[in-house]
Structures are given as C-alpha cells and as structure tokens.
Amino acid sequence: MVFLVFCLTLCAAAAVHRTQGSREHLDRVILITIDTLRADHLPFYGYPRDTAPFLSALAERSAVFDLALSASSHTSPSHGSLFTSMYPYQHGLLSNWEDLPEGIPTMAQAFRDRDFKTAGFTSVGFLSGLKSGFETFSPPGRAGDGRGEATVQRTISWLNEQGHNERFLLWVHLFDVHGWKQRRSSYTGFPDINRHVDGYVRNRYTAGELDFAHNAGWPVNRVLDAYDGRILYVDRILSRLFDVVGKRFPQENTLWIITSDHGEGLANHLYLGHGMHLYQEQLHVPLLFYFADGSHAGKRIGVPMRLIDILPTLADLAGLAPDGDLKGTSLVPVLSNPEKDFVHYSFAQRRPADRRKRATWIPMCAIQEGLVKFIYRADGVTEHYNLFDDPYERTNLFLQTDRKDIPLRDTLRTLYQEAQKMQENRPRMKSSEERIHELRSLGYIQ
Questions:
Q1: CB-neighbour burial class of residue 71 (10 A; exposed 0-12, middle 13-18, buried 19+)
Q2: Domains defined for the chain, CATH in brackets
C-alpha cells in the first residue's frame, strides 16, 4: 500500500511538471507571419487607430512581447533566422528567392522528428527557399497571386483534411501589408480606420519627413490610410482562420504565435520602404503567444527579445530536440516571470546589394542591447542611439558614446567583419524569368 501511494505521488508530480514546466504535450503550433507589419501600428502597442480588432482581442488573452526584434529588414533572411535561430550571415539565406543552404537545421525538421505534420502556406513564391522540413508546402499558384484570402483558403482546405487530434506545425505567411502602395479595391473602404491620427502625426513625424512624403507623392495621411487599411484586411481574414481552427481541433494543447518578418519605413528617416535601413520602424515587430488553454494570458513582457528566440522556446514547450547551434535563447523563463532578467544583444543586417536598382547599397548592420543601439556601415559611418530618450532615432550620439557602451560597439564591428567574410564566399544567385516576373509583380523591380 505504501508503495502504491509512493507511485501515485510520483505520477502526480510528473503530471504537474508537464503542465507547469516544459509542455511536452503541445500538439499544435500555428505560426503566423504578417509581412511588413511594424509593431507600432497595432492598437495593443499604442497606435490610436483600431487597425486590428481581432488581434487586439487576442492580445488580451496572450503573452505580448513589447520589444521583439527582427534579424533583417528583408523577407527571406528574416524568416530564415526565425526558422533556424541563426543570424542571416550564419544560415546563409541573404536575399529573396534564395534557398536555405543544405544541412541547415530548421524548425520544421525539428517538428517532423517528433512526428508532427508540417505544413507551410505562403503568399509569395520567393519563400520556397524555406520549404525544407515541410511535408506540405504551398506557395501561390502564380506570381502575384498572393492575396490573403487565397492563402487562408488553401490553409483551411488543408486543415479540413486533418484528423481532429492531429499534431502539426502550421506556418501561414500573409503578404498583403507589404503591398500598401498598390491600389486594389479589396483593401479600401474600411471606415473603421478613419479615426483621426493628427496627434500621432505631430508626435511621430518631423517637418522634413512630412515634406519628403508630400514631395514623393505620398502625403503622410495617405500613407497611413493605405498601410492601416491593409492591416485591417489581414486582421479580418486571420479572424476567420482562428474560428476554423477553434471549431475543428481541441484547444487545450494549441499555441498560436503571431509576428512579422520586419516593419516598414512610412516616410520615417526620409524613406518609404524597409530593405534600405535598420531603424526601429524596420526591426521592431509584433509578437504574441496565445496558449488556447489560457496559460500566460494578459502578460506583457517588456524585456527586449529576438525572433531567433522562437525556435529555442518551442524546443522547450514542445519537447523538441533541434539540431544545430542555436543562437537564440528560450523565452520560457520570461513567460513564467516577465520580470526576469533577460539581457542579450540583438544583431541585424541589411540585405546585400544586387544588380538591380539597389546595387549601390553598401553593407550595413545593427546591434541592440536593452535600449542602447548602434548601426554600422561599410563606409565607416556609425550611429548610436539611446532609445529610452530617443525612441525615433533622431539624435546620433556616436561622438558622445559613453565608455560603458564601447564594448557593444566593438561587438558590432566584430560581427560585421564575420558577416562580410562569410558573404564574400557565398555563391551568386541567378535570377530566372519566373523570379523576375514575381519580383516585378510585387513592386521590387520596375
């Protein structure tokens, strides 16, 4: 009898450990990447417009990371870092339409090794270079056919083919926000976003930025309407996908991760776009973890973290054993205790120059630790910002760099040299007609 009680006690303790510790019975992970979505255009990050009513409601039931940082301001390398927990120069995928080099372990492979089904549904063909490890990988049927409804419908069709208790990793990529400069009727007519943003504009934009936008043919209010309308569109189709999953699958072991690959310069720093710069409008992305069983609901995590931390976190939560040298760190400790010290630098690099109109771009990289940030360019120009006092990176403090920040600056230059050495040895990408057609249809080239 004593032995039986002892055994029951051990079993109960093990059950508590599985529930409160490493969640090794997580059965479904749904990863949503919303291309080109900067964090500060979502209401739960302080934006005055209700651009995302569904995501805002979900955020209230989620763990929200206030300062998540991307490793690149370019789509494929950023996704590559998310899936490998490596920086771009380490995993070697530096431009759209490139393939992740053979032998680089991925998130999808780690889930397949645990007998999860793996499926990826993308809104652009150039992300096919990340299909390694996905049993099902579905890019759009033709170049430019990347609207959210089509991607979500392909996803729903796949979900309807799965058993109710299926274990899977599902990745859904939505590109619609990226195309905010294009005129399409599907993204207009949203009166929900027409709330005035005059106060936001006065606080966020300098007179020079307002003049730049006007002279470029994109007055700032028009920019905000176009960009915000795309966010609201994506929010609505995500709500539909969420409903389908909720009705079809048990929710107690389901985790949703919603994030972005990079942000967008909306006339900030005199730029309409993302790939050219590494300012916060390009690198600060939203990130929320929604555990459908209610775990960690309502938590706000203020410590800076990185998209490369997602794979190590999933390794803890789902009991994965990913191969490779992961550069990220599990977020499980800060999920349990948002006040826990979590100080690691975040590194980011700009995409390399190519033979298109950006061929004059010089190499650039950035590093951030806490709210201290440096940007370093190949021509020797260095920028230094204190994001606590200067969140919009308007005052370069490089000539006033405090001694305590010099080690971080030197780390950036070392990483830059490593990145350049690896980049010089990489093979050149050849552009096929299919790739050129899609890049043109998406507005990358003229």
A1: buried
A2: 25-342 (3.40.720.10)
Phi then psi for 40, rounded to 5 degrees? -80, 10
* Residues belonging to the chain: 446
CA–CA separation, 263 and 178 (whole Å): 9
Write the DSSP string, 293-322: T-TTTT-EE-S-EEGGGHHHHHHHHHT---
State the pLDDT at residue 324.
83
pTM for this model (two decimals)? 0.89
Tokens of 446: 């003229």
DSSP class of 357: T
User: Which residues lie below 8 Å from residue 52, measured CB to CB, with a gap of 6+?
Assistant: 42, 43, 44, 231, 232, 235
3-state helix, strand, coil in the chain (%, to 5): 40, 15, 45
Closest-CA residue to 313 (of 339, 286, 291, 345): 291
Q: Which two tokens stand for residue 104?
A: 């680089």
Max Cα distance, the chain (Å): 84
CA distances from 185 to 56, 233, 272, 324 (A): 25, 11, 22, 45
Mean pLDDT by groups of 10 residues along the chain of 446 residues: 39 37 74 98 95 97 97 96 96 89 94 97 93 94 68 96 95 95 65 73 96 96 92 95 94 95 97 95 98 95 94 94 91 88 87 69 93 94 96 95 92 94 65 56 53
Residues in CB range of 183: below 8 A, 6 or more apart: none
Q: What is the pLDDT of residues 172-208, one digit of tens each?
A: 999 999 999 986 655 655 555 666 788 899 999 999 9
Q: Which two tokens stand for residue 172?
A: 């859904």
With a CB cutoff of 8 Å and minimum separation 6, the contacts of 159 are: 170, 244, 245, 248, 249
Tokens of 70: 């991307």
